[in-house]
Design goal:
The complex is a heterotrimer of chains A (308), B (208) and C (437). Chain A is an alpha/beta fold and 308 residues long. Chain A is built from 12 helices and 9 strands. Chain B contains 5 helices and 8 strands, in the order E-H-E-H-E-H-E-H-E-E-E-H-E. The chains are: A alpha/beta (308), B alpha/beta (208), C alpha/beta (437).
């Protein structure tokens, strides 16, 4: 396996498939009498969270604990970090404490890459700035495979604030690796200039959600922060919802089998209408469940590597 | 090094700790010494099937759980022979022990196999674990731990095709096809037709 | 080479044997009383320190119009003395120190302090640059004439890393400095287009998820300032041009006769944005590293003269300001000790030694108003010169640089050309490749 999971691009098709297959086996074990596995007994996993993200932290924590790892939650608030300790000093502290793996969420793109240079343990990127969130892409891929039976050849529309979305970047990369065809749909202000050239791999873009929906097996809605309208990315929440929000009428344009995904937390009424979020097509709850299995798989495969 | 996708053997350097798995490297170029021929394997499986019938009073409540990789076809063969001898259908399952191994740090993560518990479950059953080679005893130890998380059998027994000695844990097999005295630098490889194209037991290496 | 028996006394005579001025035929140079006293073959002078310069190229002392010496205020990153030593080792005899110190060099008092620190170090002439606006805040003009009249005789004014954004203020500044033949050196950046920006806006930024610094943010200001300078007939100097589009605007302005000059940095001539892959902030700089196309345009413009000079934008930063997250790191790189080697690497074929002397000594001295510097080696000229071994190759080791900081982006690179000796007003500041003090 790889040493760290910093970017979805770290995974080639074999490794990505191994993560998904491992997650599937681990999901089966979730139904056995004793859910806790002894696999990572004696290993220490640190959740180093510089941003509040209760759902991601809890998901990683549940994953590590199911594998019997010791979990230390280290959040920036109320810690030495809020007293101005640098990331490097924090890294050296974790190193001294014998952290076998550090799961890091950080507002600065690339912070996990820096961390990986400073510690011997494994680093898992749990979301860095506007860069990547690779385990989200893995759980999304897992959910697609579970619901639609495959990933290769799927037509996936990713809709919303691509410019600021680490979820979109990781999904574009992983889905390309696994053979899906991705179309990014957003107002032009929220699509990075030249993104097709930069990220390549059969990527398409569109400004017209209605035209893309009938040709989509998956539509993935990204969270759009209302504050973006203060930076003139779009005029108003109402106009955004009218052009790019998925409501019931729009959902009818989707093929019968298509699913609707959202990484959460949702802005109901903004990018997704409440009826859509709660519909049978919605995989939002599955995504949360699958997140634990996928993160167990990632921790198992990274920490199972030979001792240093 | 990439991990093998499920079922494949682990191509790694000779390990520092012993493992009961026969998925261990051996030099294909080295001429191995045949210990059991295909016909011998058939006879040994038959004998174990008879022993199981005797020791479990006709395999009442018995469940055969094969330990991947080669324990699984062996478990199915034992069930088939028991059926042939007595007409009894013994449920067969698969017990993957990957997540219970104690050599994760040494050997690295492996692809997780699929555990299958037969329909009747394991509670109050006589579970017979089936593996190809008994060596250090660590696989059997991991299997006992895994079993504990799946249910509460009445008894647990162990059947192996080959016992090559060098136990590191207080574990013994209830049914042994053949005892093969070996030195630590030798490798014992069990071949079964279902995965290897032929049956047999081959001894490799050792000081010449 | 050797300088055996050189006593540490000022205005000692030196006889440089066998140097090749601007790479031409080898000759001897006799330095006496801080000036070049004689040039010719077979010179001798009783009691002069002999410098064996066989095979070495003699250049007029290099002049760097854009450095940060961090003193006063950030002496943990650099001091005037350590920065001066780095400059001398890089072959420089004069540097212009940017005003973004603490306090900001926006008054006669601070520029005189910097001047005196430079004289005290005595390794290069340190010419302070004055801030255009009070506190570099972009709101009120600083007392530019007071700085011009001070002992520091400031002629170059700049708000350095802060663009003078207000067009009316910029116009006034351009006009005001005409009274003492000053020049406004502008950091061209439309800040409204670079809010939060971390690196060049392009493919690499998209991949790395770092907010982009678009080329157009630089180009709009260059265009605006060129028009303003044209309108009021003033001198404008464009700092660290980094984009092909900026080059094009300057080319057109020059063709119209606008009094505009421009600099490029060694790093923008050698490195591109792909260096950001890996997120090591040693490659974070403002303006950011751009693309291959920009790099090619800059090299061509330097050869052509659209870019008048090379300036380092030497920007020392402490380990704490670089060993951190990319977004948290301060922008800037060391440049003084590697500048000549990088120019040799990227521009020697186009420029030759004479062109390098023009871009790195004569033109910057002219633009900055340093009348004592930038003179070709001639009898009677001030003895500011540097001797370069053109055949040497050396590998940059961040720990053996004279700068107090370690943030060189060239660590581990092997570069051509090594400064063997530097003379400031006839005094050796570097001999045998080592600083004399």
């Amino acid at each position: 396996m790889i040493r760290h999971l910093l970017s979805a691009a770290d995974l080639d098709v074999d490794r990505a498939t191994l993560v998904l297959d491992t997650a599937a086996e681990l999901a089966n074990l979730a139904s056995q009498e004793v859910k806790k596995l002894p696999t990572l007994r004696g290993r220490t996993v640190v959740n180093l969270f510089y941003e509040d993200s209760t759902r991601t932290r809890i998901s990683f924590e549940a994953a590590a604990k199911r594998l019997s790892a010791d979990v230390i939650n280290f959040s920036a608030r109320g810690s030495s970090v809020s007293k101005g300790e640098s990331l490097k000093d924090t890294a050296l502290t974790l190193q001294a404490m014998g952290a076998d793996a550090v799961v890091i969420r950080h507002p600065a793109s690339g912070a996990p890459h820096r961390l990986a240079e400073w510690i011997d343990g494994r680093v898992v990127n749990a979301g860095d700035g506007t860069h990547e969130h690779p385990t989200q892409a893995l759980l999304d891929a897992y959910t697609m495979r579970e619901r639609l039976g495959r990933i290769a050849g799927l037509r996936v529309a990713i809709v919303g604030d691509v410019l600021h979305s680490r979820v979109a970047r990781s999904n574009v990369s992983l889905l390309a690796t696994l053979g899906a065809r991705v179309t990014l749909v957003a107002p032009p202000t929220l699509l990075p200039l030249g993104i097709e050239r930069a990220l390549g791999a059969r990527l398409r873009t569109s400004f017209d959600l209605d035209a893309v929906l009938p040709e989509s097996d998956v539509v993935m809605l990204l969270r759009v922060q209302r504050e973006r309208m203060n930076e003139a990315f779009f005029p108003s929440a109402r106009e955004y919802a009218r052009c790019y929000g998925l409501d019931t009428a729009r959902m009818r344009r989707l093929p019968q089998h298509a699913i609707v995904m959202h990484p959460g937390p949702m802005n109901r009424g903004m990018e997704i209408a409440p009826d859509v979020a709660d519909s049978a097509r919605s995989t939002v709850v599955d995504q949360v469940t699958n997140g634990v299995s996928v993160r167990m798989a990632v921790l198992y495969l990274l920490l199972g590597g030979s001792a240093k | 090094m990439p991990y093998p996708v499920s079922g494949a053997s682990i191509p790694s350097a000779p390990v520092s700790s012993k493992s009961d798995s026969t998925d261990i490297p051996f030099d294909q170029a080295t001429e191995g010494k045949a210990i059991l021929a295909p016909a011998d394997v058939t006879r040994v499986v038959d004998r174990i099937a008879h022993q199981i019938l005797e020791k479990t009073s006709g395999a009442v409540d018995a469940v055969l759980l094969g330990i991947p990789t080669r324990g699984v076809p062996l478990a199915h063969r034992l069930a088939a022979r028991i059926h042939a001898f007595e007409g009894i259908d013994v449920p067969v399952g698969v017990l993957d022990i990957t997540l219970y191994r104690d050599d994760l740090r040494l050997r690295g993560a492996r692809a997780i196999g699929h555990t299958e518990v037969p329909a009747g479950g394991l509670d109050a059953r006589r579970v017979i674990l089936v593996d190809d080679v008994l060596f250090s005893g660590r696989t059997a130890r991991a299997a006992l731990d895994a079993l504990q998380d799946l249910g509460r059998p009445r008894t647990v027994q162990l059947a192996v095709l080959v016992d090559r000695g060098h136990r590191e844990l207080p574990i013994r097999a209830d049914y042994v096809g053949k005892n093969i005295p070996t030195s630590l630098d030798e490798l014992v490889r069990v071949l079964v037709a279902e995965t290897d194209g032929t049956d047999g037991v081959v001894l490799y290496g050792g000081r010449s | 080479m050797s300088a055996a028996g050189v006593p540490r006394k000022r205005n000692h005579d030196f006889l440089i044997k066998g140097a090749r001025p601007l790479g031409r035929e080898s000759t001897d140079l006799l330095i006496r009383d801080g000036v070049i006293a004689e040039i010719g073959s077979g010179l001798s002078s009783a009691g002069a320190g002999i410098v064996d310069a066989d095979g070495l190229v003699a250049l007029p002392g290099l002049v760097d119009m854009h450095v940060h010496l961090r003193e006063p205020g950030r002496e943990d990153a650099e001091t005037v003395e350590t920065g001066s030593r780095a400059a001398a080792l890089g072959g420089f005899t004069a540097v212009c120190a940017m005003p973004n110190t603490s306090p900001v060099a926006d008054s006669a008092g601070v520029v005189e302090q910097v001047l005196h620190l430079g004289l005290q170090a005595g390794l290069v002439d340190v010419q302070p640059i004055g801030a255009v606006t009070v506190g570099q805040a972009g709101e009120r003009l600083a007392e530019l004439a007071a700085m011009a009249d001070s002992a520091a005789r400031v002629r170059v004014f700049s708000d350095d890393g802060y663009c003078v954004a207000d067009p009316r203020l910029m116009r006034r500044a351009l006009e005001y400095v005409k009274a003492f033949d000053g020049v406004i050196a502008q950091h061209a950046e439309e800040a409204r287009l670079t809010a939060g920006a971390q690196m060049h806006e392009g493919d690499v930024a998209v991949r790395l998820g770092l907010p982009g610094w678009p080329s157009v943010a630089e180009e709009t200001i260059i265009a605006r300032d060129a028009l303003l300078a044209e309108h009021v007939g003033s001198r404008l100097h464009v700092c660290h041009v980094s984009t092909a589009g900026g080059v094009e605007i300057i080319r057109q302005a020059k063709a119209r006769g606008v009094r505009i000059t421009a600099e490029a940095t060694p790093h923008h001539l050698l490195l591109t944005d792909v260096r950001a892959t890996g997120y090591d902030p040693v490659f974070k700089v403002s303006p950011p590293l751009r693309t291959d196309a920009d790099l090619a345009a800059l090299r061509a413009a330097l050869a052509e003269g659209v870019i008048d000079i090379v300036a380092t934008d030497h920007a020392p930063h402490t380990v704490e300001d670089k060993e951190c997250e990319w977004a948290q790191a301060r922008p800037g790189m060391l440049g003084l000790e590697t500048a000549l080697s990088i120019v040799l690497e990227v521009a020697f074929d186009a420029l030759g030694w004479d062109g390098i002397a023009e871009r790195m000594s004569r033109a910057p001295a002219r633009i900055a108003g340093l009348s004592d510097h930038g003179h070709d080696l001639a009898v009677g000229a001030p003895a500011h010169l540097t001797l370069v071994d053109p055949t040497a190759r050396w590998t940059v080791d961040s720990t053996s640089l004279a700068s107090k900081s370690r943030n060189t982006p060239y660590a581990g690179m092997t570069l051509p050309g090594r400064v063997v000796a530097t003379f400031l007003r006839g005094e050796p500041t570097v001999l045998d490749g080592k600083a004399t003090r």
